[in-house]
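Could you help me review a protein record that somebody else here produced? This is what I was given.
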Amino acid sequence: MSNNKQETAPEKEQTTPETEAEVKEETKAAPEAEQKPDKKAEKKSEKAEKKSEKAPTKKSLEEELAAERDKYLRLLAEYDNFRRRSAKERENIYTDVRCETLKKFLPVYDSLSRALAQTPEDDACRKGLEMIMTQYEKSLEQLGVVMIEAVGQPFDANLHNAVMHIEDENYGENVIVEEFEKGFKIGDKILRYSMVKVAN
């Protein structure tokens, strides 16, 4: 029994070359393992520094916000101008189309006026012509058409078209004495100028 114990003890204390190599490898691996985390930490710190360099400051953010707000306000103003311009263009187109359409009906008024002027008072047709003319004038009025006053009024080149001129002491200077063709307007827009004779 004692011999067996003595034999086993030296076996435990003896080290083989294999075990020595393992120990050396472990000691070498230990510093490498210690070095690896250091490199990772360095990389992390470099990344953090880069991020901190790239991170925007409060001042730069405020400047960017102000620039974007300025762009938004400019875009809003441009859209508002476009909307107003479009509305005005639509209104002008509507007015122009209405004026051009109404101009086509003015010769009918002229024909009715001439027919009334040539029809005697006692003629049975005159009453019918007068009713038609009244209805026609009401329709024009409902459409916003206004007749331009001429006879007895001072001549206005913006409303009247003078085709004749006479010298007559019975009338004042630049007074319209006769109207050859009735003038019409819608608001400030002239549909047709009055064709007139002007005195003095």
In short: Residues 58-103 form the longest helix (46 residues).
